[in-house]
Each structure stands twice: as structure tokens, then as C-alpha cells.
Amino acid sequence: MSTATTTHDEHLDHHGPAPGLLRWVFTTNHKDIGTLYLLFALMMFFVGGALALGIRLELFEPGLQFLDPHLFNQFTTMHALIMIFGAVMPAFVGFANWQVPIMIGAPDMALPRMNNWSFWILPFAFAMLISTFFMPGGAPAGGWTMYPPLVLQGGANLPFLVFAVHLMGISSVLGAINIIVTILNMRAPGMTLLKMPLFVWTWLITAYLLVAVMPVLAGAVTMLLTDKFFGTSFFNAAGGGDPVMFQHVFWFFGHPEVYILILPAFGIVSQIIPTFARKPLFGYESMVYATASIAFISFVVWAHHMFTVGMPLAGELFFMYTTMLVAVPTAVKVFNWTATMWRGSMTFETPMLFAIAFVILFTIGGFSGLMLAIVPADFQYHDTYFVVAHFHYVLVTGSVFAIIAGVYYWLPKWTGHMYNETLGKWHFWLSAISVNVLFFPQHFLGLAGMPRRIPDYAIQFADWNWVSSVGGFVFGLSQLLFAYIVFSTIRGGEKATERVWEGAHGLEFTLPSPPPYHTFAEPPKITEAEAHS
Amino acid sequence: MYSRRLTKGMQRIARGLAGLSLTTASAGAFAAFSDLNMPVGVTPISREAYELHMLILVICVLIGIVVFGAMIISMLKHRKSLGYQAAKFHHSTKAEIIWTVIPCVILVGMAIPATNALIRMEDTSDADITLKITGYQWKWKYEYLEDGLTIYSNLAPSSRAAIYNDPKAIDHYLLEVDNRIVLPVDRKVRVLLTADDVIHAWWVPALGMKKDAIPGFINELWIRVDKDKAGVYRGQCAELCGKDHGFMPIVVEATSDDRYQAWVAEQKAAMAAEKSAVAREWQRDELMARGEQVYLAACAGCHQVDGSGVVNAFPAIRGSQVATGDLKQHLQVILEGRPGTAMKSFAGELSDVELAAVVTYQRNAFGNDAGDLVQPSMIAASRSVGSGGI
To answer: Which residue of A278, A376, A452 is in closest CB contact with B48?
Structure first.
């Protein structure tokens, strides 16, 4: 994307990227690394998406037609691992790499060589993970949550799974440290913390969450490894261990992880809505505080993922109350976005359409989340398709829609070309309609009693599964259009202006489109107009 | 066929939309669309879950109407194409305090009834009957502790056979078992849950609660089916437990006290008959017919209906060295299992007659031609040698 070598700025020493493909291997440039992350994420999005289509294909009709149950379990497990660790997280790190330096007026990330490492670990991690499909016994099939004792039946794939998770964790922690150091040390003079764009704020908080919880996950999976191969009994009741302890440790990582997957999305949407409403973000400071509160609360809600493991009553009550509490800062955010739109002068280009769909559909996912917090009702919802519908509303129409919105929003800045607006709108409407056909009926399925992670189901669930599968195929195929739009925009198109969007503010929009290979070698002046946005 | 299904699907969607719009008007009317909403169920617990579910659903729908309504009005009116000029405001402490306090108040309003319900749900004291349930890959074991009754419950052979054929041709596909359990209505049943291998979860939606069955630990829940709600209630395992997670259903028949007692007596008589049947000589046809039943329930999940197994996971029985070779070794595998694999001991689960029948079946079906018959008395004899095995 950053193939432009034009340097408008005399201070920049005139060096552009190294020629040839090795540029991408050795690069320490935040824009190159951002591009690598984003392309890697896009690739993984299609790999994980193909697995999802396999799942929906099998669930199209009752009976087993395409996948045997063991392969089906491999598909669900790998779909989740690839989408979470391979698509959504790297996509957000890609945004951070591209955007954080040019939004705070820094010349690059603080630790550029480490930045290169943190990206290049990922292809190896996923090569290892995906290679398990070709091993005897196949890929991990115990669910992405890796609960023992089931996951320990995995055989040959277990060490590959564990070491792949270790590598992803190292990559994430390195990336997060880099983002924290960059934000805290490399802001242009005058860019005080409370003048930072909200995207930068959400990433700063996300990065702290990553540093705090990825090592916890690494510890949990290491204990799986020693239980399997070195005779320990951390999670084996027969040896004095406790399988539920794994769930506690896993979800102590897992719940902050959920916010790692959504906070940067909040940031992206908070950049886009003010631009197209032509009105400043409503309640900037309360947005920052709400994000921070969500992050703090995320450390004390983990057991709401495991209300059915048989916790004491006091534990169930504690986790119910804390979980309900998350709704407050989240509601504040939704109200603030609505107030930002209110009495604006709105236009509805593709990034805005995806951002609005994000607010509405993420809120629906938030509602079902609130329902899941009510423990007596959760005893019915738990481990059903209601939960599947819930987390796909927050992850697909939440995180993924925000990522797509962000790509449309900043792609003209990155490439210097406008994307095709008509195709963008087609992509939006196809996605927004089909994704609801895909996931909304899953609420009904769950309430009617269909458990999740089953390859085949009773006849009463057939109709809605059929509808859901049709939605799934339309949604999946619509994303090919997205790939086409992105690649054709990289290759050419109408020239984008410096400002790109009429209502855009922020330091990145003071740079040319595309920005030169090195930017802000001299710190910019922070004016009131470019602050907070 | 597809067009018919499409029409049916469309009808469902229309009913779904109608159901959603009714939600706000009358929560009760929603309950008629049983395949869209949570069932009300037949126990005090399930009703509490249902009522809380409807309460929070209605609250969410109301909040949604306000928030999405404001967004839609804004999107329709405040557009540049209508010449609308953007306002300049960017915060309002008053508004922000109001929309922080209101959610807090709603949440406290929700937390109170939820807490009360939860306290009642977790109270397993004063039970009339204790039922211990053990999850296995992939079946359930039920033990009536007071009555000394043990029942293994597998996916029904009719469902197993329909998986690759025509699931729609049979009743209760995947929700039927070979041996259902019976509970008396209007009696508090305390359920103890555990598992033998991996974590499972026992769930019958109409009974209102699911709980994990965890190896090495005991969980509890309770059931009291309403007096006027005798009937058959179905559910399935709700925690991923491996390959056949989707194929371990639960069927509970709730009935009157008298019928329950009669059923217990019947089961005990059957257990006794099974014992006496060990002594007599069984014919080949009898053994093969019984063996097929046992095979479909206990073996076919892994080794497949036609004995072909699954490559790299579950060995074939058709033409296998074990099933056609030395009988002693064959018996040993089934009675003791193969440590470190999914093949576990069936010595406890299957009776002598069942073991004899299934071994005979395996040695003489799928084109296997070992030819030998295994009599129940042989099994009994080999059990009494050594510690539980051969």
C-alpha cells in the first residue's frame, strides 16, 4: 500500500523503501509493518471464513453429509482460533501500526526492530497451527477454549497448538509493549494524553490488557503441555488437580481478551462517526473513562463464562453483579455515539454505513450479553446457539464491521486512491443484510434448545439452520467483493486528497495521500482543530 | 422440496417478526411461538428462568426502541443532503449523568429478582429422591441411589441409523435414547452430576437448568416437575465432549408416583431376569440379534454401524485381527479397555448377556467369520477369574 516513494518533505533524507520483496522481510517501517499485519489478517479472515462455511454447509440440513463429527469439531476449533488470533487481533495491530504514529505526530514506532519481529512471528505460528490439519488424528478438536481433559485427548496436535499459542502470545505482547512505549514517549509536543484521538486511547488501554493477560494464557497452555507429556496433574482430578481451574485461568485471560477484540473497534468507530456527522465526538472524556472502566471491570468478570461449572452461590452472585456493571460504561459509549450523530450534518459513505451498523448491531450483541449475565436465565442460555449468536454479533458485526469501516475510512489515506464508492455500498448492504440472516436466527435456535458445537441436530432446528446457512454463504461470498475493492484501490483509482473526507480531522489528514515513507521526522504543531480527533 | 422449505422458512420469518412486535405488547403472547423463544418448562426453576428471560428481553427491547429510534430519527433528519447544519455541542454533563444513572437503576432492578431466583435455584435441600448422573463419552449413566437402580442411556439405534440416511423419517431424531429414565412428578429430585472421562453438561430445557458433569467432582441441581405436567422431556449434552457430543441425548419421563414405583419394580425384575439368563444356553440367532442392538448402542458411535471404524481414530472391527482372532484377547479388550485410548472397559456397563451377545456379533457380522459363539456363562466365568477381568 505504501509504494509511494515521493517525499515532499526536505527533512526526510529522501530515502524510500528498499527495492524488492526482501523489503517486506527486513522492514522496520511502521507503515510497511501495518500493511503486512493487515494483509495477513485479511488472508486469515478468508481461511477462517472458509472453515465457517464448512460448518454452515454441514449444518444446512439435518443428518451428516459433508464432515464427520470429528472433522466438524476441528473446523469449529480452528475457525475460532484463526479468526480471533489470526484475523481480528492482527488487523487491529495493523491499524495501530499505520495509525498510531501518524495520529500522535511520531516518526515511527518506538521499537521498530521489535515491530518487525512481532509481525514475522505470526506466519510461523499459524503455519504450525494449520499444519495440524495434515497430521494423523487431525487438528485440535476440543474447542478454542482448550478445556481439559478433552483437549488432552488431542494427541499429536497438542504441542503444536500450545507452541502456536505461545508464539501468538509473544507476538501480541511485543506488539503491545511497542504501542504503549510509542504512545507514552513519542507524542508530538502539545499532544497531551487528553488530546489524543480516541483510537489511540483505546489502543493504549488494549495494549495494557494484552500485556496483562497473554502471559496468563501462555501459563495455562503450558500446564496443559506438562499435564499431557510430563506427568503433572494440574487439571487432572485423579492426580489431585482440578479441570475447572483451567477454566478459571483461561477466562481470566479470556474475558480481557474479549475487550482486546472490541476496544480498538470502539476507537475506530469514534474516529469515523464525528467525521461523517461533521460534529465533534460527544463526551470525549467520558469515552476515555468508559473505556478504562470497561478494561478494569474486565478483570473481575471472568467466571460469567462458566456459570454452570458449579460455583458457590456467592461466586455466582459476585460475577453476575460485576458483569451487569459492564453494561453501564458500554451504554455510555453507545449513547455518546448517538449524541454525536444527533444534529450533525450526516453523509453516508461506506465507512459511515459500516460504523452505524456497528453501533446498532454491537448494541444488539450487548443486549444479549446483558441477558446472559442474568445467572438464572444463563443456566438456560449457556452453551447454546444463543451464546453463538451473542458473540458473533459482538465479534462479526462488532469487531469485523469496525475493521472494515476503518479500512474504507483510511484506505484512501494509505494508498492515495479512493475506493469505488458504488461497490463499497454494495459490499455494505450485502454484508449488513446477510449477516443478520446468518446470526439472528441463531438466537431462536439457542432459545429453542440447540446446543452449540454439534455437527447435527434434531429436526425441530432444521428450518432456522437452513436460513442461517443461506445467510452465511451470502455473507462469506460478499467478502470476496471486499477483497476485490481493497486490491483494486491499491492498484489505482481516483486520487485521494490530503483531507480525504470533508469532515475529517486529525494529524493523519494533514499528511499527503499516500503519506511519504517517513513522516513527522519534525514534530507537527498541534492545533485545536486536530486535537481530540 | 427446496421451494417448499423456502415457503416454510418465509412463514417462519413472518411469524418471527410478528412475535418480536408482540413482545412489547404482551410477554405472554410470545410464549406461543415455542420454536422462537425459551420454553416455559415444567418446573419452578424453569419458570423462574423464563420469567427473568422475558423481563430482561422486554427491557432490552424498550431500551433498543429508544436508542435506535433516536439514531433513526437522526439519520433521517440530520443529513447534509437535506441541508441540515451541524450543531457544535460536544458534551453535556447533565445528559451524561442521566444516562449513566438510568442504566444503573435498571440494573439494580434486574439484580434483585435475579438474586432471589438464584438463591431458590441453588437450594438442593430436602430432596425426596437422589439421582446420580455420570457422563461418559458418549452416554449417560443414571443411578437411583435409594432404589439401587442403574441405567445406561445411549443414543437410540433408530437415530444412529438415520444419521447418514433420512433423519426426517424417524421421530425424535437425535433426541431419543435406548433406555429413558423415569421420575415421579411433584417430588423434589436432587441430581448429583459427575463424569468419567471429560466434562459433559446435563441439560433438559423443560426442566430448567443445566450443569456441568466434571470428572472427579460432584455438582448438584434439583428438579421438581409440576404435578399436572407428566410427560416426556428431552435434552442433550451441552458441553463439548468430543466426537459424539451431538449424539448423547437425554430423555426423562415424568409420571405419577405409582407408575414410577411400577417402573422401578419392572427395571429390577429385568435386572434379575438378565442375571438368570446367564445360566442358560443361547442360540446363535438370539445372540446375533441381541448383539446387534448392543453394538448399535455401545460400539457404533466409534467403530461405525458397518464396523468400518474411522481412519487414524477408531480401528475397524470388520476384518480386524482382534475380532477374528483369539477370543480371549477379544474379550480382554472389551472387558479391560485399551488404556490411553478412547476404548474403555465395558465390564461395568454391559451385563454378561450383553457382552456375550456383542462379542458374538462382532465376530460374526460385517463379513467376519470367526464362527464361534460366546455364551453369557463364559463371560460370567471369566469375570470371576482375577480382579474383575479375565
So the answer is: A376
Alpha-carbon distances of A255 from A43, A145, A200, A482, rounded to whole Å: 26, 12, 21, 30
Q: Which residues of A are catalytic?
A: 79, 108, 144, 171-172, 255, 257, 259, 270, 304-305, 330, 333, 452
Q: Could you tell me if A464 and A441 are in contact, meaning their C-beta atoms sit under 8 angstroms apart?
A: yes
Enumerate long-range contacts of A256-260, CB under 8 Å, 24 or more apart: A256/A209, A256/A212, A256/A213, A256/A295, A256/A298, A256/A299, A257/A84, A257/A209, A257/A213, A257/A217, A258/A298, A258/A394, A259/A206, A259/A209, A259/A294, A259/A295, A259/A298, A260/A89, A260/A92, A260/A206, A260/A209, A260/A210, A260/A213
User: Is pLDDT above 50 for B30?
Assistant: no
Of B219, B222, B180, B183, which Cα lies nearest the Cα of B200?
A: B219
Of the candidate ranges A490-504, B1-15, B357-371, the one whose mean pLDDT is the lowest: B1-15
- Confirm if A266 and A291 have CB atoms less than 8 A apart: yes
- Identify the residue whose cell numbers are 467520558: A286
Contact by Cβ (8 Å): B201, B224: no
| CA A476/CA A496 separation, integer angstroms | 29
Asked if the Cβ–Cβ distance from A344 to B78 is below 8 Å, we say yes
Q: Is A105 exposed, middle or buried (0-12, 13-18, 19+ CB in 10 A)?
A: buried
A138 to chain B: which residues are within 8 Å by CB? Answer: 312
| pLDDT grade for B279, boundaries at 50, 70 and 90 | confident
Domains of chain B by range and CATH?
A: 2-80+91-121 (no CATH), 129-275 (2.60.40.420), 277-389 (1.10.760.10)
Closest CA to A295 of A333, A342, A246: A333
Q: Residue A351 is placed in which grid cell? A: 465507512
Pairing of strands B139-144, B149-153: antiparallel
User: In which residue are the cell numbers 441430581 written?
Assistant: B191
Give B89→chain A minimum CA distance, Å.
8
Whole-model pTM: value is: 0.89
Q: Which long-range contacts (CB under 8 A, 24 or more apart) does A431-435 make?
A: A431/A401, A431/A404, A431/A475, A431/A478, A431/A479, A431/A482, A432/A353, A432/A357, A432/A361, A433/A474, A434/A471, A434/A472, A434/A474, A434/A475, A434/A478, A435/A361, A435/A396, A435/A397, A435/A471, A435/A475
Q: What is the pLDDT of residue B276?
A: 80
Residue given cell 478433552 in the structure block: A150
List, as one string, the DSSP characters of A409-459.
HHHHHHHSB---HHHHHHHHHHHHHHHHHHHHHHHHHHHHTPBSS-SS--G
Mean pLDDT, chain A cut into blocks of 10 residues (533 residues total): 46 68 93 96 97 96 92 96 97 97 95 96 96 92 94 90 96 96 95 94 97 96 95 93 96 96 97 95 94 95 95 95 94 95 95 97 96 95 96 96 97 96 97 97 95 94 94 97 96 93 93 93 82 61
- Cell numbers found for residue B278: 446367564
Question: Cβ B198–A150 below 8 Å, yes or no?
Answer: yes
Q: What 3-state DSSP class applies to A473?
A: helix
Cell 455364551 maps to which residue? B375
The pLDDT assigned to B318 comes to 87
Of A28-32, A369-373, B2-6, B232-236, the one with minimum mean pLDDT is B2-6
Pick from A153, A243, A335: CB nearest B215: A243
B235 contacts in chain A (CB < 8 Å): 449
CA B261/CA B184 separation, integer angstroms:
9
| Residue B3, pLDDT score | 45
Beta bridge partners of B177: B155
Largest CA distance in chain A: 70
Supply the ipTM of this predicted assembly: 0.90
